[in-house]
Design goal:
single chain; alpha/beta; Rossmann fold; TIM Barrel; 2 domains; seven-stranded mixed sheet; 39% helix; 16% strand; globular
Length: 516
């Protein structure tokens, strides 16, 4: 029996459960290996990482989110002020793992979670007493620069691509006292030479076992949604995306495998019904969030068939992510029947030319976007629109185009963030080539974990103007255009502008109070 210790350096105020982590744990336990988790969710890690205002904080200020504190009669949800490194060292001493991992390759929308896991994990591993225990990491960041990861960190092996079967091979090799050197998907240094073993085929999703969420603290299942607290988890019904968005890690993941036609895979209806029924019952779920990158890429006939079985045999409300161009009326009818609560859509930019030539989103016009989003409203499904600013080649007028589309639709919720040039995304290389980004730029270090500022340089929009448009985005979207001159005035940093800003925030909060 081999023993794997997984480090999950979560800094969020609520629990985050890694889908690949639960599958690795399940697979290893099924083959009589032992897996334990060290999760920092309920530890105060602020002293380890530089962290300031987050999008969560900003949305509370705007009135989108309630300023909540998880409370429970039987649970303490507070973050304890402890020595995280000492606690991790103690875990190592008690569990005596044969190998340690953190950061696993995932094909879910919450891609930035991979980067947080990697960069935060490195900081803990650097300070911990690891001894000779081998460290294995996966995910996009280490895979994007395997050589740098292996030469400049305590990591001994990088797991490229999907990791579930790789970790099983590692555990089996430890159990048999065999070398790791022939395990597919592994990269390592042999002397000064970098070795990249060949990749194994993509995993048929129906062959994976049911996920093991037992390794997570039960408190991680409690999440806020629309003002209430529910038991919830993240999961997947499909993997992969076939689009080429230049800000996203999915094309990099697909290219890692040579862009195979089967990169996007879906579970069978039978597998979905059996697995989600099991997870609902075992973990007493109220809601589930499907983190599939493009949920509505599923064919209409399959979704309609799934909807009937799901409603009858599972009946678990859910949240999804999808692309605007995949919306159809028949799919929305099926989603409503299944119990879909909310959909998150990525508009990114309201400028059609920027979307097409720089961001390379799926091809849809603003008119189509507005039509499809209003169709979602028609069927009473809540939705959120994701937007980005701070792209290369973007002008202030283009940001106003993004505001305009959102203003016309007035989605129940909308969010805006700065483009983040993560390792592996195509627009990162473009940005470096065009001098929009330093060659020495490092993923998470760019934004210090808050995503509320841009690491880019030499943008076509003045940084102060861009920051204004980002910070006041929701004011432009939801307030009548008669208020726009006042919003413009708040770009000035003086006493009067602050008074006007506070007044506009009150108006916005009143709007949401009456609507909701």
């Amino acid at each position: 029996m081999a023993k794997l210790l997984i480090l999950q350096p979560n800094t969020d105020s609520i629990g985050r459960q890694s889908i690949p982590t639960t599958l690795i744990s399940s697979l290893l336990k099924k083959h009589n290996h032992d897996v334990e988790l060290f999760d920092t969710t309920f530890m105060d890690t602020n002293y380890l990482y530089e962290k300031s205002t987050t999008h969560e904080d900003a949305n509370v200020e705007l009135g989108f989110f309630k300023n909540f504190k998880l409370k429970g009669e039987n649970y303490d949800f507070s973050k304890k002020k402890i020595d995280v490194i000492e606690a991790f060292n103690q875990k190592i001493k008690e569990f005596k793992p044969d190998f340690i991992s953190f950061s696993h390759w995932g094909s879910q929308l919450h891609g930035e979670g991979e980067f947080f896991a990697f960069f935060h994990g490195i900081k803990i591993i650097d300070k911990a007493e690891i001894g000779n225990i081998p460290i294995f990491v996966g995910g996009t960041a280490p895979t994007a620069d395997v050589d740098d990861t292996l030469r400049n960190s305590p990591v001994k092996y990088v797991v490229r691509g999907e990791g579930e079967m790789v970790f099983l091979d590692i555990a089996n090799s430890i159990d048999k006292n065999e070398s790791f050197k022939n395990i597919k998907n592994l990269s390592y240094l042999e002397g000064d030479q970098l070795i990249n073993n060949p990749l194994r085929p993509l995993i048929p999703l129906d062959e994976l076992p049911f996920a093991d969420f037992d390794i997570y603290d039960d408190r991680t299942f409690y999440r806020p949604y629309h003002g209430n607290i529910y038991r919830c988890m993240d999961y997947e019904l499909s993997r992969g995306c076939l689009y080429n968005c230049t800000f996203c890690i999915s094309p990099f993941q697909r290219n890692t495998y040579g862009s195979p036609k089967n990169f996007r895979r879906e579970k069978s209806i039978k597998k979905i019904i059996e697995e989600i029924s099991y997870l609902k019952k075992r973990y007493k779920l109220d809601i589930i969030r499907y983190q599939d990158e493009t949920f509505l890429s599923i064919k209409e006939d399959k979704l309609i068939e799934l909807a009937k079985e799901y409603k009858e045999k599972v009946n678990l409300p859910f949240i999804i992510e999808s692309t605007i161009n995949t919306v159809t009326e028949k799919k929305l009818i099926a989603l409503k029947e299944m119990g879909c609560l909310s959909i998150s859509f990525g508009l990114e930019s309201g400028n059609e030319n920027l979307r097409k030539t720089v961001i390379k989103k799926p091809n849809f016009t603003n008119e189509q976007a507005i039509k499809n989003l209003k169709l979602v409203k028609k069927y009473g499904i809540s939705f959120n629109v994701f937007n980005m600013v701070g792209f290369p080649e973007e002008t202030a007028d283009m940001v106003y185009d993004t505001i305009e589309v959102n203003h016309i639709v007035k989605p129940p919720y909308c969010q805006v963030g700065f483009f983040q040039p993560w390792e592996g995304v195509a627009l990162r290389d473009y940005s470096i080539d065009k001098n929009y980004l330093s060659k020495n730029s490092k993923g998470l270090e760019n934004s210090k974990d808050n995503l509320t500022s841009t690491p880019m340089q030499n943008l076509l929009v003045d940084k102060s103007k861009l920051q204004h448009l980002h910070d006041k985005f929701q004011l432009y979207v939801y307030l009548n255009k008669m208020f726009w001159p006042l919003i413009n005035f708040t770009e000035k940093n003086n006493f009067i502008s602050k008074i006007i800003h506070n007044f506009l925030l009150r108006v916005l909060k009143l709007r949401f109070k009456f609507i909701n």
